[in-house]
Structures are given as C-alpha cells and as structure tokens.
Specification:
Shape: globular
Helix content: 10-25%
Strand content: 35-45%
Number of strands: 9
Structural class: mainly beta
Distance between the termini: 42 Å
Number of domains: 1
Order of helices and strands: HEEEEEEEEHE
Strand order of the largest sheet: 8-7-1-4-9
C-alpha cells in the first residue's frame, strides 16, 4: 500500500483534460511548463489591445475563449498569430530564455500533445497572477 501511494505521489495528478471550447467560440490555452529555468520570472501574455491577459509563473496555464478570426498575442517582443476557428483549441507555450540582464519571456505556438506532456500538476490561473 505504501509503495502504491508513493508511486502516485511521484506521478503527480496526471495530464490535464480540458473542456471543449464554448459553442461558437475558439479556446486559446496559454501555458508555462514547470522547468526551473527562470522560475522567478513571470511570463505576461498581452492581447491585441496591449492589455495583459495573464501573468504566469512555472507550472501554470490559462484558458481564454475568443471569437473566430485572427488574433495576436505577445510576450516582451515575441508574438504569435492565430486564425481561430469556432470549436477549436489552440495552445501557446511560454518559456523563459536568456536576456541581457535577466531572463526574457518567449511565446510560441504549441499543440495538444506538447501541452499534455507538460500538464502534470499544472494549476489554472484566472487572470493576472499575483494581483
């Protein structure tokens, strides 16, 4: 019994299973894996209007429902574009890379398989973390 509990503790909660996009909308999942690289540096995702959609630290994700059509998201200079279709889910990964004085947030388009591989023990962030 103790071995089974230890195995479950080591495995974590398992991959996340997300709900489908709301009717007539697309869903964008922004996420950051649990890598220790740049753990203290936040990843802030900005939308088309320049406002922050979410700020995430390691091991977090945010889901946003969007209207079908073109959308652009950025993090400190990097940007991704999505032509969203109703009923579809899109994945945007944020990672921290090297910067001049400190690490820097980078975004790139991802996919469901990569998200699933990294989603063990991820926690959802609603809005901007830390506010």
């Amino acid at each position: 019994m103790k071995r089974a509990l230890l195995a479950l503790a080591l495995l974590g909660n398992g991959p996340l299973i997300l709900p489908d996009a709301p009717a007539g909308k697309a869903q964008v999942v922004f996420y950051r894996g649990s890598s220790l690289a740049g753990a203290a540096i936040p990843c802030t995702i900005f939308g088309e209007n320049g406002g922050a959609i979410t700020t995430m630290y390691r091991g977090k994700y945010t889901r946003v429902a969007v209207d079908p059509g073109p959308h652009a998201y950025a993090a400190k200079g990097d940007a991704v574009k999505i032509n969203a279709e109703a009923g579809q889910t899109y994945y945007v990964s944020c990672s921290i890379g090297m910067g001049i004085m400190a690490g820097r947030a980078h975004v790139h388009l991802s996919n469901a398989d990569e998200f699933t591989r990294k989603s063990n023990d991820m926690k959802e962030v609603l809005g901007v973390e830390g506010q």
